[in-house]
Amino acid sequence: MDDERTKPLPRVPLDEALRESHEDRVRSAFDDLGEKLGDRATPEARASVDKLRAATLEKDAARLRAHLDDVKEKHGWLWEELTAHPRISALVNELALMGL
Length: 100
Hints:
With 100 residues, this protein is mainly alpha-helical. It contains five helices and no strands.
């Protein structure tokens, strides 16, 4: 068999592929945000980011909205970091289109 030949891609159900893509994008975006925040984030702020990450991973619009409102009220600086982060903003916008 010719090893130089292009091998077919494994068949993955579309819903599974989309889920994996969403999960990868969420993890990557929130990991990047965590690195950007560095030592500035208090344990309470980090817990808020973790709650946002979980709600985003689960595509739970109600929880995401509640956590975003909480961050905006309690951590103004973190709210600004979230809205300025391009990948986080894109994820929130994507979920907004889905009914957030």
